[in-house]
Amino acid sequence: MGSTLAEKLLIHNTGEKNIKPGDIVIAYPDRYMIHDIYTSFLKRALKDMGVTKALHPEKAVIVLDHLMPTNQAATDPEHFRDGLELCEKLNIQNLHKGEGISHSLMHELRYAKPGDVVVATDSHTTTYGGAACFCTGIGHTEMAAALATGEIWLKVPSAIKIVIDGEFKNGVSAKDIILKILGDIKSDGGQYKSLEFTGSAVKSMSMNQRFTIANMSLEAGAKCGLFEVDEKTADYYGMDYSEISWLTMDEDAQYEKVLHYNVSELEPQLSCPQGVDNVHGISAVEGTKLNEVYIGSCTNGSIEDMAVAAEILKGKKIAKYLKLVIIPATNNVFKESMRLGYIKTFIDAGGMVSHPCCGLCCGQPYGLLSDGEVVLGTNNRNFIGRMGTKKSLIYLSSPAVAATSALTGVITNPVTHQA
Fold first, then answer.
1. Residue 349, CB half-sphere, CA atoms under 13 Å: how many?
2. Could you give the CA distance from residue 361 to residue 384 in angstroms, rounded to a whole number?
3. CA 207 to CA 199: how far, in whole Å?
4. pLDDT at 198
């Protein structure tokens, strides 16, 4: 009997030959990532455990992204200082402060590679599964134990195969299909499961589009979201395809179920207040008035996302009463956006561009909302109060929908909108 992608990755890492969903295995992470929200908690957990050194400090990465720069919260500077202290005490050389969002940096800097097992102190660690990396979020106490021992217990997840075929229409993208899937299976439909993606539409996707879908697999409760590798994967990582060609789906693998989608007739999708799985086609919400548009996050802050927004905004002005906040995911994306003229386009259109960070997505400054205000964002969550007060409203969409809507001031379909 064949293996799912999750099973293959855990077999490869653990050496266990016969594993099945529900089994507990001891895995040996290839990389550990800690971001600033948890540095202080991790420091205290290490102290409580009596841990004074990391077994594999060369595998650890610390990224200061959520609280950069530090702002009103009195504990923000403490988290910053504790991150630096952890690097010094544990001999962690891989430190990135203010260079961008952790999950975007992890694949951009090739820390998380095809075939790896990676753990990190954040839920959207599932992002790197776009390149067949078994990656999942863990808590700070578990991270402390993993740093000390080089091991982690994992339960082998059952898997759902998601076959995506067809060709995207202009104005429809990977973000739309993952929102559609979330609306169908709901926020608990992938609880501790591996969502595994294949199909003709998947094969045509860029790596950044795959990372977008893997990122939001978490919103179904997934343990990981995994894509098969191909030549695109190998090119992105500068690897020989023969090294990673084993990371494909077995026809006789046992999947809990198989879901089929065809994107050819898919309209843009939006996650509506107040939950990520409250998803509707744009025709149901078009015309909703907006106070703000946010383009960025580890979900849709790539150079491709910047390109989509810039093409729509070029030579135009945003609605007069609307705020547009754009945050490239990393410094490299920011610099490339400057080189290509995207930043100028955003500013000329009336947008406000921030340095790379998590920003509005995690409720930090750069456009927080007040009571009754409505924001349309390209990020991954719209929980109550996440981007401002509890009486603000959050819609989630693709960059194409967000940029088009910024021009009109209301939710607008990029497929049918006439400039």
1. 31
2. 12
3. 15
4. 98
What are the C-alpha distances in Å from 84 to residues 102, 109, 183?
16, 20, 41
Q: Are 231 and 356 in contact (CB under 8 A)?
A: no
Answer whether 0.90 is exceeded by the pTM. yes
Amino acid symbol at 213:
I
- Could you tell me if residue 171 is left (phi over 0), alpha (psi between -120 and 50 degrees) or otherwise beta? left
Amino acid symbol at 49: M
Q: What is the pLDDT of residue 72?
A: 65
Q: Residue type for 203, please?
A: K
Q: Residue 283 in contact with residue 267, Cβ under 8 Å? A: yes
Rounded to whole angstroms, the Cα distance separating 328 from 101 reads 9
CA dist 125 to 137, 330, 352, Å?
A: 5, 16, 28
What is the phi/psi pair of residue 356, to 5°? -60, 125
Q: What is the pLDDT of residue 70?
A: 73
Which pLDDT score is estimated for 219? 96
Q: What torsion do the CA atoms of 408, 368, 393, 348 make, to the nearest 10 degrees?
A: 10
Q: Which residues in the chain come in under a pLDDT of 50? A: none
Cβ count near 71 (within 10 Å): 11
